[in-house]
Amino acid sequence: xxxxxxxxxxxxxxxxxxxxxxxxxxxxxxxxxxxxxxxxxxxxxxxxxxxxxxxxxxxxxxxxxxxxxxxxxxxxxxxxxxxxxxxxxxxxxxxxxxxxxxxxxxxxxxxxxxxxxxxxxxxxxxxxxxxxxxxxxxxxxxxxxxxxxxxxxxxxxxxxxxxxxxxxxxxxxxxxxxxxxxxxxxxxxxxxxxxxxxxxxxxxxxxxxxxxxxxxxxxxxxxxxxxxxxxxxxxxxxxxxxxxxxxxxxxxxxxxxxxxxxxxxxxxxxxxxxxxxxxxxxxxxxxxxxxxxxxxxxxxxxxxxxxxxxxxxxxxxxxxxxxxxxxxxxxxxxxxx
Amino acid sequence: xxxxxxxxxxxxxxxxxxxxxxxxxxxxxxxxxxxxxxxxxxxxxxxxxxxxxxxxxxxxxxxxxxxxxxxxxxxxxxxxxxxxxxxxxxxxxxxxxxxxxxxxxxxxxxxxxxxxxxxxxxxxxxxxxxxxxxxxxxxxxxxxxxxxxxxxxxxxxxxxxxxxxxxxxxxxxxxxxxxxxxxxxxxxxxxxxxxxxxxxxxxxxxxxxxxxxxxxxxxxxxxxxxxxxxxxxxxxxxxxxxxxxxxxxxxxxxxxxxxxxxxxxxxxxxxxxxxxxxxxxxxxxxxxxxxxxxxxxxxxxxxxxxxxxxxxxxxxxxxxxxxxxxxxxxxxxxxxx
DNA sequence: AACATCAACGAAAGCGCTTTCGATCCAGAG
DNA sequence: CTCTGGATCGAAAGCGCTTTCGTTGATGTT
Lengths: 337, 337
Known about the structure:
Chains A, B: One of its GO terms (molecular function) is DNA-binding transcription factor activity. Chains A, B: It holds the Pfam family LacI. Two copies of one chain form a homodimer. With about 325 residues, the first copy, chain A, is α/β, with parallel strands linked by helices. Chain A contains twelve helices and 14 strands. Chain A folds into three domains: about 5-45, Orthogonal Bundle (434 Repressor (Amino-terminal Domain)), CATH 1.10.260; about 60-160 and about 295-320, Rossmann fold (3-Layer(aba) Sandwich), CATH 3.40.50.2300; about 160-295, Response regulator (Rossmann fold, 3-Layer(aba) Sandwich), CATH 3.40.50. The longest helix of chain A has 18 residues, at about 295-310. The model of chain A has no long low-confidence stretch (mean pLDDT about 95). The interface between A and B is large, with 51 and 51 residues. Chain A binds a DNA duplex (30 and 30 nucleotides) through helix 2 and helix 4.
């Protein structure tokens, strides 16, 4: 590894001047600057990030943490979509992402401690559980942070407009003549799940549609299997719904599966609308009508918010709500009277 | 931020002793060791990773790079699956992953340079193009590296058994009575694509099955759209196949789409078998029969291989081939004579 | 000629930690 | 009583870089 001292020796200047030249300080003449840069290139010099960070207290890294409540981690399309978008944009600003582990080489430490240890300049969290203590700890610290997919009073957050997502779905279903509309919900412990429930209820009430208790069934942690189970409950009802708004595409796909198994055809016998617009939604049969979350946009807004805090060196608390859109496909149909 | 000097002052020992106590050196008495550890906990001491790395030349990080030839990046289920598995296991060993960007804050540098700059202890690459110059540069360097999804003579690689994957597929199709079997291939520039072609041809020849040139159609970069296009070509043939082995699930799903569009029903009129076993495969209609790549296993083997190199401090060149399995679902059917 | 100004450069301290090499002290050996 | 060896501890250098502050010499001013 070659250092600025090697460059200093080679060029005849001091290490100070070399450093300054490399960082484009104004008090170095154009000529020596060029000479230094040239021999740096020639000798294959690369700065040492650790030394730099140690001395400047800036690491040009961002810590990324995602909760794995359901064990899928990065494998979930929403997560990987957001992270990928975030990565692309953070990259443009010069930052690398570091996916941190919880365990600091056998000393049992928290995520916050780990990120502090790593000296990241900021943290990006994708977490759906507003009261995860690990996340709370990070939020309460003084490090810049942006959290995605949940609401919070104490930091920058960005999430989809879950409320009007529900409105959008119900409105659409209603416009197709449905009035008996059920909701397969995400667990209340999950922020998005909770809000989508509210969106559903609000929209239903607004139209004076009945919301029997039995029409609101908990789909748990958004998995296909849980969606399938939830749909069974709905179908066993004495007065089953003609349409169901499902809080996640995976669950919706599971729901469609059971419907099919039970001999119902979609959308003829039952309309279904999902949430997320994962890739799969476009390729199941029938193609799933769904509320699209804009993972790209979420990623860019999150980046912007984080950059702003890093630059201003102070936390800013704000909510950035990303609009959702209805993707009209094949799983919903006008109700024939 | 509190340092070992703070601990030294507080406990009355020297910073040397503090450091040794924290690192469990043998020449510190049990008593002072405990005292130091206690006040460290009490004062909320956290080591500074940059200082540590600077002094030890070990960063406990692994650089991760994936080629984005098709622009999907981490969004592709195979990629995210492997990375997630790798992350989990690397974590257990105490390593963090760093997803690096190409541009080192405006100086245009290569991935290798970037990883060198960051001082990673090893590199993990997911790349399908054996002659990507960036990847070659990393392989030729002296840093420990493991590459996934391609073959190479000069480093550790781990990839699926693409050859017997083809064998498996053709064998299955043949056992169902098919003899006119086509292949929608991945581009030859992509290692997996090339080998799967060979697997297809070998298996066909082994059974004395004809392989007309028209039966081998290039599906490009494994996208759904390209799969759909490829299938069109196949269907336009004077003597179309009764079964097609597709080199990737996305392409297979695209292929099924066109088949359906053209009024063919699967598997009645045409059997299709894919490759990957992405989640979607289980939920399209009909459920896609496919060759499953074991992303989990790939991740763990990659971790092991990399750890070994890091510990031994020398590159080891080897090929680790992960077995694939046939996931029999609904998209293939016995050929009625 | 005396002075102020400015451009260009370097000495040195500091970032937080590790590690080598001594120094010190005390128990037990001779 | 002297000597040896082991157990504990610390001084100091070093990792590679940044940044403050001072020095030097050249230029322009009056």
